[in-house]
Amino acid sequence: MDYFISTESFRPVSSISVSMDQIQHKHVNIRGVKLHIAETGTGSSVVIFIHGFPEIWYSWRHQMIAVANGGYHAIAPDLRGYGLSEHHPDLGKASFDDFVEDTIAILDYFQIEKAFLVGKDFGSWPVYLLSLLQPTRISGIISLGVPFFPPRPLRYKDLPEGFYIHRWKEPGRAEADFSRFDVKTVWRNIYILFSRNEIPIADKDKEIMDLVDPSTPLPSWLSSEDLAIYAEAYEKSGFDSPMRAPYKGLHREFTIRNPEVKAPVLLIIGGQDYFLKFPGIEDYLTSGKVREYMSDLQIKTLPEGSHFVQEQFPDQVNQLIIDFLDKQVRSS
């Protein structure tokens, strides 16, 4: 990896006074579904943020304000099925392709010829896929936590039966597990689990929700107000629709031969992100094999960063993002 970024001199909260009234909200008809879109900034260079799970546009609040203050136009949708956006009209057909096609349609709606894309968690996959399908529309990519790698259907076959993705793919398993709690508790438990540095794996006689003791506090960087905003969004959407594409939906065959992400990529990694413990991921990054698919790649690591590094250490993440954007704009 390129280098490590110390967080010792920073508190894990933002020094930016995030003014939510600087962020405008609208609903846009995108491919037959009304998507909620948050935006701020008036710069000519556009940055589109694609969230993961269990998130919404709000998880990018610190970054949106920062890039807007840096002279960029920030756009962050609630993906279809999430937050204030409508669900897929046929949940059984929901897939990652919808997120790719929706992002292209958002570019077209705003008459954006070319943009920077920022993805996190599974949100990085549609970002990478879009760059492979329409490279001329991508100025650069920033991914939090997830490198590009060609999909393998059996990538996680060696993980135990209690692996959270295995459990959530099982019809009715997550629904039965979650139904024991209110929405706020379910969301809180998932966030706490994903904040840890171990892969969530339940014993055979336990469920995923049982991995969190009710007395466990929220991570220090997430306030009760933040929790209330996320919980309200998931009370509206439920969990079935947001989980459909990443965990339960159709996974179409990957047919792109010799894929190579040619756009410049900044990969920001939290050193404590549990994803690093997925089979083969750390070796893929440290061995340099990742550069076979992303030749113009920078990797920056925040050693104490979690899966939610953009909320945990927003100042450092914001600076990395701004530096990358400015460098690409200067060189274009």
From TrEMBL:
Spell out the InterPro entries in the cross-references: AB_hydrolase_1, AB_hydrolase_fold, Epox_hydrolase-like
Q: Where is the AB hydrolase-1 domain?
A: 46-153
Key word Hydrolase present: yes
What does the record list as coiled-coil region(s)?
none
Query: Do you know which Gene3D superfamilies this protein is assigned to?
Result: alpha/beta hydrolase
Which of UniProt's keywords are assigned here?
Hydrolase
Question: Per its UniProt record, what Pfam families does this chain match?
Answer: Abhydrolase_1
Q: Does the keyword Translocase apply?
A: no
Q: What family, per the record? A: Belongs to the AB hydrolase superfamily. Epoxide hydrolase family.
Q: What is this protein called?
A: AB hydrolase-1 domain-containing protein
Organism field: Salix suchowensis
